[in-house]
Amino acid sequence: MISPVIDKRDGRGVSPSSAHPFVCIVYRYCIDKRYICIDTPDEASVNTYVPYSVFGGGLMPHKRKTLLVFATTIICLLLTPLAARAKTCDSPATPTYTDAQIADRLQEINERYDLYEPMSAEDAAFVQEYATPVGSPATRGSSSFSWTKSGGGTQVTVTGNVYHNGTLSYTWGANMDVATISGPTPRSMVARVQCTAYGVLGDNLYGKIYDRTVSRTYSNTRSFHYAPAVNYSGVAAVYSVNASVDVTTSNGSFFTVTGN
Q1: What is the CA radius of gyration of the chain?
Q2: In the beta sheet, which residues pair with residue 102?
Q3: Most buried residue among 11, 72, 130, 172 by CB atoms closer than 10 A?
Q4: Do 173 and 193 contact (CB within 8 A), yes or no?
């Protein structure tokens, strides 16, 4: 194993490595005259060392310097394409989305396509990544929620759960308890639950195979319970189920209580 050498330029200790690809930007002449240090573009990267003899060990100082510059230039020209190719192979960072951003994006995609209309590759990739897989254990249960929102002097809370169960024949729905916890009694409240399922359409195309929204309007009441249950059949791969309550206050203000 090659021992660490000292950089003549700034006196830093450097450790040779043969594991990194040759990527040279500038050369550094090492004091022990055994190796020439070839820097990588990233200061944090480990440097690559080339035997000093390759660069004309034993020549007079001024001739050595000329030969070093020439040899370094040749290596750069030969090896830079390898570095460029290596950079293109780096995996892009995966974006991080909040639950609200995911729900909003899925809703945008839902509204963009008709049933059985093929999606773009970008939208299909997002749906497959962030919608809930039908075959996962999470689909055989429910997703609970508790939301509170205010508007027009009225505050409303919504608690409960949404669910989607089954294989090929599915049942989806919600159990929602809605209550006005402060302010005047709302003029009306509309509870909604939407289920959208996606699957393969053929020829490697992906699209929406099921989409339905159920709702019920409650007028001049402070609280209610809503528990729709719906059945459908199909070959779904992923799905989303979302609930919301639209509130119109006594003074005509409007707001929606949801997790988005």
Answers
A1: 32
A2: none
A3: 172
A4: yes
